[in-house]
From TrEMBL:
Residues 12-73 form the GP-PDE domain. It comes from Tigheibacillus halophilus. This is Glycerophosphodiester phosphodiesterase family protein. Gene3D superfamilies: Phosphatidylinositol (PI) phosphodiesterase (3.20.20.190). Pfam families: GDPD. It comes from the Bacteria. InterPro entries: GP_PDE_dom, PLC-like_Pdiesterase_TIM-brl.
Amino acid sequence: MLTGRRFANPLAAAKAAGADALHIKTTLLHLKLVKACHKEGIKLRVYTPNRKRRLVHCMLLGCDGLITDYPDKAVACRKILKL
């Protein structure tokens, strides 16, 4: 399920839709959501973290995937973090 708007519970919305993954806007990302998705077996992917700070934040929280306009920055951040 892809969402750029705030649901009261995006994980519940994804489960109700029968989704096996949730794709959210980078501004909606928080640790509680990452943990809940992983607990429920739902992949969490984030779009569009383009700044290094946002990329690192997403990686450190444990997102399953990133959709970015700058994959070279993402690869560089991943190497620095040794992920």
